[in-house]
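Researcher: Next sequence.
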Amino acid sequence: MNLYFIALLTGAFTMLGGLFAMRFRDKLHIISGFSAGAVVGVAFFDLIPEAIESGTHHFEPSMIMAIVAAGFAAYMVLDRFVFFHGHGECENGHHAAAHVGAGTLSIHSFMDGLGIGLAYQVSPTLGQIMMLAVIAHDYSDGINTVNLVMKNGGSKQQALRWLAVDAAAPIIGIIVTTFIKVDMESLAVILALFGGFFLYIGASDLIPESHHSHPVRWTSLATVLGMVFIYGVIKIMG
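Model: Next structure:
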C-alpha cells in the first residue's frame, strides 16, 4: 500500500472523529467522558508500552516511568501556573489550556505519523499493522481535539482549525520519515513524555469536566468504554 495514501487515510479519520464531536455537541459531557478514557488509554496501552519497548537497549523501565512522571509534572506546572486552569482567575489562561491541549494531541498525531513511517522502514507488514492501529485511534484523536477546544471556551472555528492541524499532523509525520530517521533512544523519551502529558490531560482535565453537573453513572461508563475501545484497538491491531 502506498505510504502517501496511508498518510491521507490517517488525516481523513482524524477529521471524521472531530466532525462527529461537533455534530453531537449537546452530548459533549458523554463525549468528554469517552475522550478521557481514550486519552488515558492511549497513554497506558500505547505510548508508555511503546516507550519502554523503544528504549529497551537504552533505558531501564524505571527510567522510562520517571520520564513519564516528569511529563505529567511538567504539564501540571504549565496548567496551574501558566494557564491558571481550573482556578477561574484568567479567561485567557482557560483558552490557552485549550490550545496547548489540542497542540499536544496534534504533536501526538505527528508522532503517530512518524511511527508509521519508521515501521515501514523496518518492513511493509509492520508498517501496515501500525497504520491500522493509528487510523483506529486517530478517529478518537479527532474527537479529543474538538472536545478539548470547545469545552475550554474555544469557538467552533478554532476547533475546526485545530482539527485541521491534527489531521495534517500524521501526514507530515509520515512525509518526514522519508527524509530522516529518528533514533530509538530519542523516540523512547518523546513517547514517555507524551504519555505523562496524556495522563494529566485525561485524569486532571477531561475526567473532572465530564461529570461536572452531569450524571456520574453515564459519564463514568463512557470513560471506561473509551479505555476499553483503545485497549481493544491496540490488541486487535497488534
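Model: Confidence is low (pLDDT under 50) at residues 84-91. The longest helix spans residues 91-122.
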